[in-house]
Amino acid sequence: MGNVIVESLKQPSVEEQRVEIVERKGLGHPDYICDSIMNRASVELSKEYVKKVGTIMHHNLDKGLLAAGEVEVRFGGGTVKKPMLLVFGDRATFNVDEDVIPVGEIVVNAAKQWIKENLRFVDPEEHMRYQIEIKKGSEALTDIFKRRSKGRKVLGANDTSAAVGYAPLTKTEKLVFEVERFLNSKEFKQRHPETGEDVKVMGFRRGDKVELTVAMAFVDRFIDSEDTYFKRKEEVLESIKEFVKENSYFDNVKVELNTLDKRGRGVGGVYLTVLGISADGADCGQVGRGNRVNGVIPLNRPVSSEAAAGKNPVSHVGKIYNLLTHHMAESIYMKVPGLKEVYVWLLSRIGEPIDKPRVAVAQLVLKPGVRMRDVKAQVREVIESELSNIDKFCEDLAYGRIPIC
User: Fold this and answer.
1) CA distances from 391 to 220, 301, 316, 344, 387 (A)
2) 102: which of 46, 187, 238, 319 lies 20 to 30 Å off by Cα?
3) Is the pTM of this model over 0.90?
4) Residue 191 domain-assigned?
5) What letters, b where the CB count within 10 A reaches 16 and e where it falls short, cover 282-300?
6) 298, part of any domain
């Protein structure tokens, strides 16, 4: 493949930079909910296409919106006055010859199943309404799926788009990711059932000192008074500090929890929800506003502009390249010695095969004493190998084997 570029970056790694900011939106955050549900919908729709017609057909469900509901929060347990609204948007294939694909039924069932599996206090029948705004795809884009050449395993790209991925995660990125996963773990929720799934962790590193600001919804049915809230909050904060102390990569980490809270203001001065998520009565969510595909929002890094969640996994490079660049970067970092950081860029051109990007670029931050001529051929070999196996990568995406947030 002639359009592979491998070059060195003359810059310090992110670990070596003085300031680093990293965010993660957790399991019950409205944006995370949108990304996860729309991607689950794509997976289930892909399975139905394969079952009915033997192949995945054109669809893109990356225009989802979660509109917040309305609740009355009260100490001891509030009420849901108006359910949330989940809107499915964009395009799909509804008919293939004589076969009818029940798109609306499939995506709504996917949403309900995801909610049952992940949000303890949300009833997908009672607390959520569903609106289907998925339309038929354009002739030009759907025709890409009819152009499968004999012997070819891959389709043409359905967009001209670029993506970038990197490896490895920094210590700050790992810490932010792991703290949220801890707070939404089964073990933590068993110890602290009063905590909801809506969690956000913001990490700020200055030199070797780290500040973690955590926002986590509490569930009002477990909190009978303001005093109880602040007592439980302190217990939760101590649990977070203990986890950080045992698992942190840093000696100096300061943790704050729900910093908007103010004593003496009743329910207005505390972070209470009825269902454990802010979408029950406060915040809306949208596909593409959550974590990048590697699970964090890394403000020190170049990031892809596309929303991966919900896009089809066989022709939409906004999904495929978005995840593949991170996978490639990780493979290069693991297989090629002497690298501090790896950045991989892929650029597509609409209509051209997805295994033949217009350009593939690997940018390397080398360790001292390592020369480009020592690593260039190995890096190029990894890129070409990954592209030659892109059909298997797309299959893993189609069946939900690769997480997207």
Assistant:
1) 48, 28, 13, 19, 8
2) 319
3) yes
4) yes
5) bebbbbbbbbbbbbbbbee
6) no
